[in-house]
Design a protein that fits this description.
The protein is mainly beta and 160 residues long. The chain contains two helices and nine strands, in the order βββαββαββββ. The two termini are 35 Å apart. 21% of the residues are buried.
Length: 160
């Protein structure tokens, strides 16, 4: 009989929608004569590691478990902080620490293109307003990541 492995998946949730309007790149209406700002949220770079279902929990048939972590992505694109998210509480079973540790070990390996804010300035060219990027600032970004661990197969990634 082949070895039994668990399965995990994850999805990202934006923590502060007010600081990151919309999904993907946010492009404001480019009208008027005032500077405008474009916010681009952090985006995953390459394949993201998925956590392994803890072997002791698998042997005990712990079943389906969700872990929600709050992660901060630094200006260099690395994960700089990891903490349990309130959305994931209460989470309590004999293997809670092992599931959380597996999820944290995975996110610590993740790399991102960091979030950015770009300043756009208007200028006039023959009666047409041309917008140019005059400054770019990398920003930290915090997101919540939900991990779902199940016993039925290899690890899968499910992002929304």
């Amino acid at each position: 009989m082949p070895p039994v492995t668990g399965k995990s998946s994850f999805e990202f949730e934006r923590v502060n929608p007010a600081s990151s309007p919309g999904k993907g790149n946010y492009t404001p209406q480019l009208t008027g004569t005032e500077a405008k700002y474009i916010y681009t949220p952090a985006s995953p770079r390459g394949k993201q590691a998925t956590p392994a279902y803890p072997p002791a929990a698998l042997a005990a048939h712990a079943g389906r478990v969700k872990v929600v972590l709050r992660i901060t992505i630094g200006t260099d694109g690395t994960v700089t902080q990891v903490a349990p998210a309130l959305a994931g509480l209460p989470f309590s079973n004999p293997f809670s620490d092992q599931f959380e540790a597996a999820a944290e070990a995975a996110v610590r390996q993740w790399k991102f293109e960091p979030a950015e804010v770009r300043r756009l300035e208007p200028s006039d060219y023959r009666g047409t307003t041309i917008w140019s990027v005059t400054d770019t600032e990398k920003r930290e970004m915090t997101v919540e990541v939900t991990f779902t661990f199940t016993e039925d197969g290899p690890a899968m990634i499910d992002r929304q």
